[in-house]
Amino acid sequence: MNRALAAHWPTALRLLGIVALGVLVPNQFGAGWLSTLTTCVVVSLPAAGVGLLYGELGLTSLTQFAFAGLGGWIALRLGIGFGWPMPLLILAAVVVTAVFGAILSIPALRLRDLYLALVTLMVAASVNIALNAAGFPNGGGGFLGYQKVGKLSRLPRPSFATSDAAYFRLVLAHAAVVFLLFGLVKRSAVGRAWALTAQSEGAARSAGVKVTQLKVLAFAMAAAVSGLAGALIAGQLGQLAPSTFQPANSILLFALVVIGGARSPLGWCLAALLYRAAPYLLDQWGVDGNIATMIFGAAVIFNLLSAPGGMAEQFKGAGRKLIGLVAGMRRPSAPVAPDAEGLPA
């Protein structure tokens, strides 16, 4: 029983931390920071997709923001054009982007490293061109639902999350569910098969692993969470712009996930904070937020040379050392044996 309780302690602490964030953040931060932190939670979803592909399978995909743009487009079209509620918008965005992600996985079956990165980057550029040409739905007629002039429509938030605080909690709940599902999958037979495939596809096939199906599943999951992010950001802002989903943003997010730690939910959250909160903080200090990109470039080099596991692994290592130090201080010292003359040695 004690072992079972000990095994569930980490999960209970994480849930407690999520609840604490949902309660404290809206009460402790103003409107600007609350909006920024909401965006950070949204960005943690495509960061999780990057972590899933790169951290588990070693696949470099630069399409996460492209799929977020696609998910946002679907949410705006169905929400503004047909009045669908937010749960259905999220479901539609997730399903459609998962299908596109599975289609994208076809070239990934034979490509890796630089070649896969180039192909996915071209896909992201193509999606961005399509979004610029079509525009995001804003109440216009026809299939695209876009108009350049006239009264523009905005996607309404759900009735139970109209305020910024309530919407932050809604986004946080979705991110918590995604992180939980990813954690369960990584600990399952699928996760173990992913790990074996990352080490050697030949060995995985010899062990009976269906490598093709596993890669398709990974790409579909990564695309689905990006589509979810797109729907959530559409609900947060009410409208979207193609500039948000440029290929350069996907490259930057990938670099930040490497810095934060691709295999850890903590690393995904750190990547999201660096992506959105760091530039906002610099702006608050009167410094150009674009300088953060220059800092990130140096951080990538430092990370690859000294901390391949990312900041998350460094924090975990420091935490373990601190726990060991505290445990050593609390442990009673052994009595010193006297020498032959009865004095301590």
Briefly characterize the structure.
By secondary structure, the protein is mainly alpha-helical.
Structure write-up:
This protein is 74% helix and 0% strand. The two termini are 44 Å apart. The protein has helices at residues 2-28, 31-57, 64-82, 86-108, 113-134, 164-187, 189-199, 201-206, 211-237, 247-260, 265-284, 291-306, 310-330. 39% of the residues are buried. It has a domain at 14-246. The protein is globular, with a radius of gyration of 23 Å. The chain has 345 residues and is mainly α. The protein contains 13 helices and no strands.
Could you give the order of the helices and strands?
A: HHHHHHHHHHHHH
Computed structural class: mainly alpha
Beta strand %: under 5%
First-to-last CA distance: 44 Å
Helical segment tally?
Answer: 13
Shape: globular
Number of strands: 0
Summarize the helices and strands and which ones pair or pack:
Elements: H1 2-28, H2 31-57, H3 64-82, H4 86-108, H5 113-134, H6 164-187, H7 189-199, H8 201-206, H9 211-237, H10 247-260, H11 265-284, H12 291-306, H13 310-330
Helix pairs in contact: 1-6, 2-6, 2-9, 2-10, 2-11, 3-4, 3-5, 3-9, 4-9, 10-11, 10-12, 11-13
